[in-house]
Design goal:
Helix 2 packs across helix 6, helix 4 crosses helix 5 and helix 5 runs antiparallel to helix 6. By secondary structure, the protein is mainly α. It contains 6 helices and no strands. It is globular.
Length: about 140
């Protein structure tokens, strides 16, 4: 099966996930709890010299995730015949449950990071994947 990737959907999904991350980690939602969990202040984050590079790399990784998600969704839709939005939601949940959450949990176990930080960060990953899946489902 050949997958015709809708690159517009991939780009919009990556941007949507980036916006979701901005909201999720903003002071209005979980930003303050996240800062406390990582032991930093807003001022310390602003002083970080490579923040632009970090955001750029993070966005490129979001593009990669959206691209792979598009492929997985296309195969899932082909085999299971769900709507593309339903496929996006189920793909996001299964990718998070099977790949993202276990990897992050293992990192917490062996690096002795806080479970509160794990909850915040892995929660964002689920939100990000759901946003990508729904966006690709609507556009793709």
């Amino acid at each position: 099966m050949n997958v015709a990737v809708n690159y517009w959907a991939v780009l919009v999904a990556a941007v949507a996930a980036f916006v979701a991350g901005w909201l999720y980690y903003s002071p209005f939602l979980l930003g303050n709890a996240w800062l406390k969990a990582i032991g930093k202040t807003t001022e310390q984050l602003k002083e970080q010299k490579n923040l632009g590079k970090m955001y750029s790399i993070s966005f490129i990784l979001s593009l990669l995730t959206a691209y792979i998600m598009f492929h997985v969704m296309t195969f899932s839709e082909y085999y299971f015949h769900y709507s593309f939005v339903s496929t996006g939601i189920s793909t996001a949940i299964w990718m998070w449950l099977g790949f993202v959450m276990p990897v992050q949990a293992t990192d917490v176990l062996f690096s002795e990071k806080s479970w509160k930080l794990f909850t915040i960060n892995t929660g964002y990953q689920l939100v990000s994947l759901l946003v990508m899946g729904i966006t690709i489902g609507l556009i793709g």
